[in-house]
Amino acid sequence: EEQLVESGGGLVRPGGSLRLSCAASGFTFDNYEMNWVRQAPGKGLEWISYISSVGSTKYSADSVKGRFTISRDNAKNSLYLQMNSLRAEDTALYYCARFHTSWYLDLWGRGTLVTVSS
Amino acid sequence: QTVVTQEPSFSVSPGGTVTLTCGLSSGSVGTNYFPSWYQQTPGQAPRTLLYNTNIRPSGVPDRFSGSILGNKAALTITGAQADDEGDYYCVLYMGSGIWVFGGGTKLTVL
């Protein structure tokens, strides 16, 4: 079964850092481009970052640019999101999502919750 | 910054038809924005309903259809069912690798 499982969320103070992971299984991870999408409590979805299949191309939303870094380790079938200088408004459920070649998000994890609070 | 617009809420009767739209605060949505639609029910991850404007992934019922209506992307549900209740999101490709979700539409079936 194709699956994405996020981990690494938790409570962090404003200004702190956190690293999220996404473990992929059931498919050939290095064939796919990947994304992170977040959802603040009671709010809508927000695309935040993309990485190409080999990790050479990355894009980020303005809201996280310069603070969050997407990366991947294809040998470990894993996607990461390094989050620095965290703010209260970064509090959200963070999903990793697979990018289909037809340009849509075709497989989602269940998310990991990040809470930024003092 | 361009905002992707969706109706905040919509209501449809069981068996009825409803059309949700996805627009831009400035400009028109075309197929070059690669519109896709996702359904989210409480506590669940989003599920893809349509991509590239009007293509359904396998397993999505044909009561869901997509189109470009005027200057917006549209999702039409024909013969709405109770389990169609939930939040519906569109997302558009803005170029330069950037995707932007709409604010979502909360659909009630009653």
Describe this structure in words.
The complex is a heterodimer of chains A (118) and B (110). Chain A has no helices and eleven strands. With 118 residues, chain A is mainly beta. In chain A, the strands form two sheets. In chain A, strands 2, 4, 5, 6, 9, 10 and 11 form a seven-stranded mixed beta sheet that branches. In chain A, strands 1-3-8-7 form a four-stranded antiparallel beta sheet, with no helix packed on it. In chain A, strand 5 (45-51) and strand 6 form a beta hairpin. The model of chain A has no long low-confidence stretch (mean pLDDT 97). Chain B has 110 residues and is mainly β. Chain B has strands spanning 4-6, 9-12, 17-24, 36-40, 47-50, 64-69, 72-78, 86-95, 98-101, 105-109. In chain B, strands 2, 4, 5, 8, 9 and 10 form a six-stranded mixed beta sheet that branches. Chain B has a four-stranded antiparallel beta sheet with strand order 1-3-7-6, with no helix packed on it. In chain B, 38% of the residues are buried. The interface between A and B is medium-sized, with 22 and 26 residues.
Topology of this protein?
The complex is a heterodimer of chains A (118) and B (110).
Chain A: E1 3-7, E2 10-12, E3 18-25, E4 33-39, E5 45-51, E6 58-60, E7 68-73, E8 78-83, E9 92-100, E10 104-108, E11 112-116
Chain B: E1 4-6, E2 9-12, E3 17-24, E4 36-40, E5 47-50, E6 64-69, E7 72-78, E8 86-95, E9 98-101, E10 105-109
Parallel strand pairs in B: 2-10
Antiparallel strand pairs in B: 1-3, 3-7, 4-5, 4-8, 6-7, 8-9, 8-10
